Amino acid sequence: xxxxxxxxxxxxxxxxxxxxxxxxxxxxxxxxxxxxxxxxxxxxxxxxxxxxxxxxxxxxxxxxxxxxxxxxxxxxxxxxxxxxxxxxxxxxxxxxxxxxxxxxxxxxxxxxxxxxxxxxxxxxxxxxxxxxxxxxxxxxxxxxxxxxxxxxxxxxxxxxxxxxxxxxxxxxxxxxxxxxxxxxxxxxxxxxxxxxxxxxxxxxxxxxxxxxxxxxxxxxxxxxxxxxxxxxxxxxxxxxxxxxxxxxxxxxxxxxxxxxxxxxxxxxxxxxxxxxxxxxxxxxxxxxxxxxxxxxxxxxxxxxxxxxxxxxxxxxxxxxxxxxxxxxxxxxxxxxxxxxxxxxxxxxxxxxxxxxxxxxxxxxxxxxxxxxxxxxxxxxxxxxxxxxxxxxxxxxxxxxxxxxxxxxxxxxxxxxxxxxxxxxxxxxxxxxxxxxxxxxxxxxxxxxxxxxxxxxxxxxxxxxxxxxxxxxxxxxxxxxxxxxxxxxxxxxxxxxxxxxxxxxxxxxxxxxxxxxxxxxxxxxxxxxxxxxxxxxxxxxxxxxxxxxxxxxxxxxxxxxxxxxxxxxxxxxxxxxxxxxxxxxxxxxxx
Length: 590
Prior knowledge:
Strand content: 15-25%
Largest sheet: 9 strands, mixed
Number of strands: 21
CATH superfamily of the largest domain: P-loop containing nucleotide triphosphate hydrolases
Strand order of the largest sheet: 15-14-16-17-13-18-19-20-21
Shape: elongated
CATH architecture of the largest domain: 3-Layer(aba) Sandwich
CATH class of the largest domain: Alpha Beta
Oligomer: single chain
Number of helices: 19
């Protein structure tokens, strides 16, 4: 016997006079205690095997809140072992709360007595009846509507008061201990009543009222931000959870965060794309009128079980699109202007960390590579903590014009210099459309993410090149532990690389050997405070000069060797030799 058959048998046995009519079991409500001149309500149990709410009962006169078999068995005094869905090993959810002796129960009766026709019409404007308002014990204090937040023990210690004409005008009333986020669940008792069944979660009390009007079990939080208070442990015994919030990107993110915590049992109801921002159930009920039930049913039908993973169809489509874009490409990444480096790395992509001794030309090397990529209309953000914006621009102009800094600063240049300078300035100006220098020493990963978003939007690109000069001078939260800070930044770079399609150039320092010198053939262990560099870097490179760094006026031709110390996809070894072109602040690949 399947579960639904057990549910039917259970209700037919324990509800006096119950009869099965299609997908419903109906009978005179056993919980109603009508006055002499009134008839008892009708209890109806929904037993459609295809419905998420199969097994849910409710009374037409709303004499008692509805629920599922476990709750029905509890209020009927039936032995738990005889109730479908009973788990003998289930551990009850208990909160460590000491409830005060004083509550708002008596005051709520006074507030309810102040509800007049005008107040009920406020709710009927968006399709909520007097019966629902009375069931939820909503009252009026003379100016504000009072929404009581009952606790699991059946008492109310706090209520949220909302001005009908301006819902943003609110305040909490009652015991201050119960104003905190932990207690901001409207209709929280519904969770226990829906054990073994299904229910809705929504934002704002009025949205909940529209669902209660349709007969759906629901809980609500005052705002989307309060969804964070709901925990997987509290909702562990609900089989299906439908989440519907107002229509906004912020609400979608918060909803997905909650769904990720709760798990696969969640289904998120999505709004049609043409609806305006902040559209909600109240507005839908007002717009649809009698068709509101149909509209909600359609949203439920279209909902899918939440998954934090992309659908197989989307993954397949994205993979094929990337494969199509890569067809015919000699390089999988971007070209940097150095043929041997491009060949060794198969193009620039991922996290590329460059180490070397002090004053070896690491910054100069990345200035050249990044500005050349910007000239090719690749958006570049250069995070500089070493040289300064003016130095970067001046050295770039020297390299583009093949003029020294002194020649650029000549007050009355000759015709040859003026011609070179004019042409290079034009190239430089065009390059700045794709090149940004940032010297903010309060930089953090979130700011970096937003700046990447900006440059991708401004350049209409879906990728970015980021230069960090240097790794050891990035701002850290804990200045006393630089290594931990470096590792944290590397973790964020990995995430940014994958999520925002970013290629990184990162300058790093090298450690000295025991003798105080730098190894001529360094490896990953040569990186200063290397930490996670060996795990984070897609390519770890080292630039070693073969001239005496302490002899700046040496007549020997200055060459540096670039080594690929480690790579995820390429063979380590010597990449190329580079000749320093001083005073033009550039390198030439030999």
